[in-house]
Design goal:
about 650 residues; about 35% helix; 9 helices; alpha+beta; Immunoglobulin-like; six-stranded mixed sheet
């Protein structure tokens, strides 16, 4: 699988995501990981049932050396410590991961690293019931170019690590001097980074009413370490123990590169475990830092809510911080005096190391919507060690490392080795793997005869240093032999591949001819179908043109009929209107005539009535015959008048 990694520079990455089952802790938690003598540690985490580490530890090395470490079953040892006080750590348990268990991820493969839970071993009886475990990602990948910009100092062994820790290299104190290594170990220029929160105002506007008067703190992270101030009252304008003096061992170019990648310093306001808000100061100017131009910046920054909004609309009522940040070259003589004082300080017991006080322990990075910081990243470089005895070797005499077991080594010697391990850590470490019994065959190069006479002790014949060197040398020779066998295998595989490809080529040529013949026949059929299709299309085009002509003729005929119909309809409508007008006039004349006749008839009726009355009066004087004749004459005269008037 490592052959898929093309680069010669690789890195072993351990990502510590979170933990579970740590509810029994009341003190801060820290994780230390050691790989072949190089130790890296995470920031200190507040005690919680499920603490969030979000820490990334990297060891950079070359491909050949990493292959040898994997062949030697080298283990990555992960230890969890709880902080008892400023000078003592209590180990909770450990985890051993074989390098062969690491997931190999080629560059740009898009493969996501697997997350697995690992239970702590070597737990005490009171912690076993809680079953604490860590969620880890363990992978091997090609080294990124950007990770080579800042390479932290590497501790070659446990002894060097403890000595350096005793000198204050990695201890983080807000109230005391310390220094951090930025860049390669050859960078020996000293700088002093001072971060001072001078004033905090209007904090009452961001503190909930129920929390007013409760102690609050400020927390910020710089160069992989987190700092927290002492508790203070939110109604006051001064912050206790809010100045951090960080001594940095580096060069101007490395510092400029660091602040180019991390141009903002974020201050978080805590009330207990709750984040109330945050404020950021821009340190972009430090990306152009040089020794000839010291950096001092005073700034007033406003605290915003977690969603990035202002606390109040009135700027005068917004909570703020007055912060001063300075980065100055430091006098070397002062550093030497500090080192001398640290060396004169009392030595610590084996297994203990100094670390921050309770009020100044580094916090884990949390995802902040305002300016989300990257996960804690600590890097080290694994170089091929010289053949000297490291104190880590005592931890891996016959279990953690690759070795050859000598039958003549007595149980007494093994018990002595176990006692050395107990002296270093207080208990015997659990191991992975089993001893490799070396009965070397004659078929392997540079054989090593591991059988000696049983009446001699191995410690008297060969010191452990030479046994270690012989095992290392044999491991290198086996690795070289393995590489040669791989080359031979690749050559044989290439020959077999060529032979197989030749056979496949002949078979393919035969099948190709058959396929070409079949394809030619199908092409001819397709061409015939194409010609028929073209003829059918041409017929359809002719028919379509004819239909179009007929459609045009019908359209014109329809338009002519519509025009004639419209004209005729208008003529008929006009004649109808004229006839209707004439009839209305005639009807009107008849009605008028009828009305006049009716009036005349009424007048005649009145005349008849009048005549009847007259006749009635004169009836006594006239005879009946005369009356009848007179009435008849009158009626006749009336009818004549009627006929004359109505029938001219």
């Amino acid at each position: 699988m490592m052959d898929n990694l093309l680069s010669s520079s690789l890195q072993v990455v351990l990502e510590i995501k979170e933990g579970s089952g740590f509810s029994f802790l009341t003190s801060p938690l820290i994780v230390v990981a050691a790989l072949n003598g190089s130790k890296l540690e995470s920031a200190e985490i507040r005690p919680a049932s499920s603490p969030l580490f979000d820490t990334q530890l990297l060891w950079q090395t070359d491909k050949k050396y990493l292959r040898r470490l994997r062949t030697g079953n080298t283990a990555l040892k992960i230890e969890c410590f709880s902080v008892i006080n400023e000078h003592k750590r209590d180990r909770l348990g450990y985890i051993l991961l074989n390098l062969k268990e690491a997931q190999i991820i080629p560059k740009d493969s898009g493969i996501a690293a697997l997350e697995t839970w690992h239970k702590l071993l070597g737990l005490r009886s009171e912690a076993k019931s809680h079953a604490p475990e860590l969620l880890l990602r363990f992978k091997i990948e090609e080294a990124n170019d950007e990770s080579a910009i800042t390479k932290p100092s590497r501790f070659a062994s446990i002894k060097d690590y403890r000595d350096n820790r005793g000198m204050g290299d990695a201890a983080v104190h807000l109230s005391g001097p310390h220094f951090l290594q930025i860049g390669p170990p050859e960078s020996t220029e000293l700088y002093e980074l001072v971060i001072n929160i001078q004033e905090a105002g209007n904090l009452y506007s961001v503190i909930p009413p129920s929390e007013i008067g409760a102690p609050i703190t400020f927390q910020y992270s710089v160069m992989g370490s987190s700092y927290i101030s002492d508790d203070f009252n939110g109604l006051q304008d001064t912050v206790a123990n809010a100045m951090a003096v960080v001594e940095v061992k580096s060069q101007a170019a490395f510092l400029a590169s660091y602040f180019k990648g991390f141009p903002h310093l974020t201050f978080k306001l805590y009330c207990g475990d709750k984040i109330l808000g945050s404020a950021s100061i821009d340190l972009q100017e430090l990306s152009k830092f040089s020794n000839s131009k010291p950096f001092v910046k005073k700034s007033k920054i406003f605290i915003k809510t977690l969603d990035g909004k202002d606390v109040t609309e009135a700027e005068s009522l917004n909570p703020y911080l007055k912060v001063e940040v300075s980065l100055l070259p430091k006098n070397v003589n002062l550093y030497e005096d500090n080192v001398k004082k640290m060396l004169e300080a009392p030595r610590l017991d084996a297994g203990d190391a100094p670390f921050p006080s309770r009020n100044t322990f580094p916090q884990e990075f949390q995802m902040d919507p305002l300016s989300p910081p990257p996960p804690n990243r600590v890097m080290a470089h694994l170089d091929e060690p010289e053949h000297d005895i490291l104190s880590d070797d005592l931890l891996l005499p016959h279990e953690d490392g690759f070795m050859f077991h000598n039958d003549s080594i007595s149980k007494q010697e093994l018990s002595e080795n176990d006692s050395k391990v107990r002296d270093l850590h207080g208990r015997r470490e659990d191991v992975i793997g089993s001893p490799h019994h070396a009965t070397v065959n004659s078929g392997k190069p540079n054989q090593l005869n591991a059988q000696t006479k049983s009446n001699f002790r191995a410690a008297d014949i060969l010191p452990r240093q030479y046994i270690r060197e012989a095992a290392q040398k044999t491991c290198e020779e086996l690795e070289d032999w393995k590489e040669q066998q791989q080359e031979i295998f690749k050559y044989e595989l290439k020959m077999k591949t060529e032979k197989h490809l030749k056979k496949l080529s002949e078979e393919w040529i035969k099948q190709k001819k058959d396929l070409e013949t079949t394809l030619k026949e199908k092409i001819d059929n397709c061409q015939n179908l194409y010609r028929k299709l073209e003829e059918a299309i041409s017929d359809l085009v002719v028919k379509s043109e004819r239909l179009s002509l007929k459609e045009d003729e019908l359209h014109r005929a329809k338009e002519e009929l519509d025009r004639k119909y419209t004209t005729k309809f208008q003529e008929l409508r006009k004649a109808s209107q004229l006839h209707q007008f004439d009839m209305e006039q005639k009807i009107h004349a008849v009605v008028v005539e009828k009305n006049s006749l009716t009036s005349k008839l009424e007048e005649r009726d009145r005349e008849i009535a009048h005549l009847k009355e007259t006749i009635a009066k004169n009836s006594s004087d006239l005879s009946k015959d005369q009356v009848a004749a007179l009435i008849e004459d009158m009626v006749i005269s009336l009818f004549k008048n009627y006929h004359l008037n109505y029938n001219p």
